[in-house]
Amino acid sequence: MEKSSGLLAVFFLCTLFIQLHITYGQMSKFDNQIPEKIAGLFLLTDRSKKDGYVSLDEFISITLDKDFNGDNSISRQEWITVDAALGIFDSPTANRIFQAFDTDNNDVITLPDVIATFSTIDAAIRKDGKISAFEYLIAYIRLITAVPSKKI
């Protein structure tokens, strides 16, 4: 039994490595500092508990911080402006991430969009109600590479 669980663990790690390698290979057409920027964003998001995981509350809080006009929604322009001001992502990358968060494609991110995005990221590897740094990195790289950029 121990041998089969060890083989399963090795298989799981190999699968994750291959997935990361393929996903990271797609990053070559983008800014090569994006993994470091995503790690910095993760640290900003894990701000209340600082436990190495992002909870739904933390995810909602950091995302809705981009709502600088106080209408409980984030427009594409707010999103891109805040990312540029913080120096996190350039406009095309911020635009791709905005599109991924905008789950209902209405050009506005609302609380249901944020919750749906959190659930998608959380379910990518383990559905446990929190997102690890690794899950966060993989999810953001997928968001950046999978979503075609829409013209502003």
From TrEMBL:
Sorted UniProt keywords: Calcium, Signal
SUPFAM superfamilies: EF-hand
Signal peptide range in chain numbering: 1-25
Listed InterPro entries: EF-hand-dom_pair (IPR011992), EF_Hand_1_Ca_BS (IPR018247), EF_hand_dom (IPR002048)
Domain of life: Eukaryota
Chain ranges of the EF-hand domain: 89-124
Protein's recorded name: EF-hand domain-containing protein
